[in-house]
């Protein structure tokens, strides 16, 4: 009896294994295909690209896409994990630069360049997600870490005497919003136009060109604007 049960167990395992392994491989293959398709589609068209187009590019059905990624935020989080890591690295590298002003300018140029090559990432940097979605927690955590480093980059540049005293770290949000608009308006016609506006702004940020500015908007107001942008996407 025991031998018969053991044989049945072996037969059962043998009959399931060939079926399960391909399914797991197919699921992983589909997931990777969806992420790759999403990266390309987001880069070309921004975060509002229809999900059915991403499914078509990935060669899967919409049901498969939604099974792997139940909402757009989950797909965005998976598609931009590497880019957000690069974004956080940019802040860390700026902080490590022995020249505070060079670190400041290098960070601004690098992040704006990342926006210029990817309309989806340009969108992503100008919106924020609700903390209630677990899929987005890691993405927002990396953004928060980059912001903490950026605050220190700004403080170092001010202490060096090269960055105007009234520059606020949140002014970077306004810069990214402006750059995202330039990138979207000039894509396909003047794709390098963003570089000119960024250099204009960097010159305006120096103490040499400091003039009195309007009061910066409250951080809460900027975050509400970013959240409103997120609602338009999802």
Automatic annotation (TrEMBL):
Gene3D superfamilies for the chain: Tetracycline Repressor, domain 2
Top-level taxon of the source organism: Bacteria
Domain HTH tetR-type: 28-87
Methyltransferase as UniProt keyword: no
DNA-binding region: 50-69
Keywords: DNA-binding, Transcription, Transcription regulation
GO molecular function, one term: DNA-binding transcription factor activity
A Pfam family per the record: TetR_N
Tagged with keyword Signal: no
Name recorded for this polypeptide: Transcriptional regulator, TetR family
